[in-house]
Design goal:
The structure is a single chain. The chain is mostly helical. The chain has helices spanning 4-32, 36-63, 65-73. It has one domain (4-73). The mean pLDDT is 97.
Length: 75
């Protein structure tokens, strides 16, 4: 049985996957559009998803020592 900490880490990792997927979706729509107003909105949404992804990475670095170490070793 998973501990609550393990469940939270899994939730954070799944959320990070979803944020990265959302970034790709918004970027694809941005690239496909020729409407400047829509492109502005899509870029804004894409960038907000990047912020969310960064927040999750920081959470994972704080809560998962191995995750943090990998970032330190590969920066």
């Amino acid at each position: 049985k998973q501990t609550e900490e393990a469940k939270n880490l899994a939730r954070a990792r799944q959320s990070l996957i979803e944020e990265l997927d959302a970034i790709n979706v918004y970027e694809e729509r941005f690239q496909a559009s020729n409407d400047e107003e829509l492109k502005r909105i899509l870029a804004h949404n894409r960038d907000e998803e990047k912020e969310h992804a960064a927040m999750l990475v920081e959470y994972l670095k704080e809560k998962d020592a191995t995750f943090k170490r990998m970032f330190e070793e590969h920066d």
